[in-house]
Amino acid sequence: MITSEEIKSRLWDGANELRGSMDASRYKDYMLGLMFYKFLSDKTLSAFKTMTTRDEITQSELIANYYNGMAERGPQLESMLQRTLGYYVLPEHLYQTWIADINKGNFEVQKVIDSLNHFERSIANSKDADDFKNLFSNSTLDLTDTALGSNLHERSKNIKALILLFADLDMVALQKGDVLGDAYEYLIGKFAMEAGKKAGEFYTPRQVSEVMAQIAAKTPNIRSIYDPTVGSGSLLLTVKKHLTKQAQQSLTYYGQEKNTATYNLVRMNLLLHEVKPNKMTIRNGDTLAHDWPEDPERPSEGVQFDAVVMNPPYSVKNWNRAGLKVSDPRFEIAGVLPPDSKGDFAFLLHGLFHLGQSGTMAIVLPHGILFRGAAEGEIRKRLLEKNYIDTVIGLPSNLFTNTGIPVVVLVLKKNRQLSDPVLIIDASNTFIKVGKQNVLQEKDIAKIVDTYVSRQEQTGYSHLATRQEIIANEYNLNIPRYIDAIDDDIAHDVEGHLLGGIPQHNIEQLAVIRATTPDLLQSALVPVRPHYFTLKEEISELSTKILNDERIRQQSAQLAQQTQAYIDSYWSQIIAINDPEQIHPLMEAMLNDIKSLLASFNHLDIYDGYQIIAEIWQNALLHDAEIIAATDFYTAGRNRVPNMVNKGSGAKKRSEQDGFISSLIPSELIASELYADELTNIDNNKQRIQTLESELADLVEAAKVEDSPEYDALYESLKKNDDDEPLDTFDNKKLKDELKNTAKEAETYPLLKKVDKLISQKSTLSKQVKADERALKEAVQERILSLTDQEIDTLMYKKWFGNTIALLSELIEKPIKAELKTLQMLNERYQDTLTSIDKEIEQLEAELQAMMQELVVTQ
């Protein structure tokens, strides 16, 4: 069983190894194109098998039967496959035939070219022809390109290596549960990150897609979705992922893409994600130059969709080369054309034109569309007067590979009441740094979407802007006009600095401590004058009192108890997974439930808890759930697979087996839980080795000090460099020679003997550790096969949820600790008054004068 994470890792490692110096944005077309052709071949064979036999047969037997079937009843079989799949691949053009040719040593690149060309001809007259037309055209998959190799031999070698990368992957099996589609999306994303700015035109970062798609998916009764700048199709597919299975079955997908290679990419991507050809309409064209899709019967209305999502190219210059007028139905609502120097509002108006009356549109654009004036200001005013702008979401800068500017997601709707306020969300400061990019965490995405749904105001984060406010701001939507950034800096109090004491208004801001343990706080404060206090005990003492207070401990215990019940409930569901399609719904339910659980506790951040559970899924559960779904929990726990490791580098890089590991349980966990005594013994010996190494290091340093006993005895035994300078270790051979040639009664003999003994002890212990580690490794490998159900339960619980209760319980203490830290800062800030500082200055001046008088000037 190979999981999606293992596929992703293997394919990306293979891509990096095989592409050499070829640009990532170009190599992706070859890799993803051939991966898709393998999918078409596997689907053809799978469909043929379903039509002809229910027996279990090998792949070689299936291919032989397919050859025979085509020879005996070709036209009939072709017609059946065409009706079932909308396409077919002939036996001589199967991906498996290429592999057979490679294995026989008679592979030719021309055979691949012929296969790709024949596929396009074979579907030319079918009703699904448009979905496959020019998928493998030279503009996308030019196998004669010298970038693949300077001559035919080199190109053949590189293409063979790429073909073999997918040789053992069953694309039909991997399509279940979207494993194949996820791997394809992953590769698109990795190529985009590698290609940098060149990738911006076709790829929307996953976290931005998630924000837009989850919002769009909240629209009731979605039956159609449209992306006018569809790129790789990630936005369409992310919306699909957040819909119910029933909604997915009736969903139709529309998209347009200007770049031909990317247009081919999106069609492949949708097909790999089990979008049927009759459910998708993707067009290669310029969205702004000519309106599409059109309804001939209603030319002034355009085709309407339940959801519109888009990530258009930012601030496109000279977008109106087609000479469009304001009379174009798409722009009539605005009353003016967007400026030719910036196409942002042109894309927005196009999407809005195609938005259904009860639909939702989400578009990501540069921050400037919120406040730029002239024609853009007029358009924004008109949209706000119509009340089409529902939500403004400010995102961090540097989210995209092709630009570092901050962006916003605008949500638009046509069915809003004129009195409905505009929700403004400032999520520009919620991110983490991953390499050069800023990234939204799962908790950040969840908070944005939850705020969108609840439409609740939160200081420093969200605000409902009324029509009156927007008019007062002259239709400028710049987020800082509506949301003040939270200033974590606490203003200084002049009286506090002059006379000392923590101001009362600062103490009143310690909301969590005052709500949970007000008496402890009050008893720790002493008034120094009205409205000013000082602490009568150390912060460390107060912290201990508050954090160990029964009220806090009770809350932590209550949260721990509820968390345990929550884990127990989902444990039984996780280990019972038997279908890959159960995985994502179960994950979503588990994430939603943790928010509900934490919401019943005051003061803690539910999204911090959400992130804890999200990371459990990302780091372990998604991978493990796939394995459990393919077999069953206890069988998977006792299943042993080869542990493959990479060795060597460059031309000598190879993969070799290094024993066995469990499909589910890390060997380190088995060792720590079931072989604790053996591990302790190994660790003790390692500690002893470190002690011996420390003693030897001390003797080496002492031996470098001239005129010392160690120097006289040991200097000649030190290793030397080419310049005869001593290094930081002993030369064992020299040491033995010195010991042999030194009389036992000599003064230097005991030190030589001591070093020899230390080295001997270290060597013996090192050999023992290696032997013990080898024995433990073998024991763990054998134990995998005989683990009991109870042992598997214990080990997997520790792997998945070992520290979950502790991490969630810490959320109770987190805001309290933050306020205690603030209290400590305030206490230190106002401890030194102006009077005390003046006294200290006077004292220091007096001391200085006294010292100066004692100075004697000599000639």
List keywords for this structure.
859 residues; alpha/beta; Ferritin; Rossmann fold; 9-stranded mixed β-sheet; 3-stranded antiparallel β-sheet; 55% helix
Account of the protein in words:
Pfam families: HsdM_N, N6_Mtase. It catalyses: a 2'-deoxyadenosine in DNA + S-adenosyl-L-methionine = an N(6)-methyl-2'-deoxyadenosine in DNA + S-adenosyl-L-homocysteine + H(+). GO terms for molecular function: DNA binding; N-methyltransferase activity; site-specific DNA-methyltransferase (adenine-specific) activity. This is site-specific DNA-methyltransferase (adenine-specific). Keywords: Coiled coil, Methyltransferase, Restriction system, S-adenosyl-L-methionine, Transferase. The chain is an alpha/beta fold. The protein folds into 4 domains: 199 residues, N6 adenine-specific DNA methyltransferase, N-terminal domain (Ferritin), CATH 1.20.1260.30; 270 residues, 3-Layer(aba) Sandwich (Rossmann fold); 94 residues, no CATH class; 111 residues, no CATH class. Helices cover 55% and strands 11% of the residues. The protein is built from 34 helices and 18 strands. It has a 9-stranded mixed sheet with strand order 3-2-1-4-5-7-6-8-11, with helices on both faces. A 3-stranded antiparallel sheet has the order 12-14-13. A hairpin with a 2-residue loop joins strand 13 and strand 14. Helix 23 packs antiparallel against helix 33. 34% of the residues are buried. The model has no long low-confidence stretch (mean pLDDT 89).
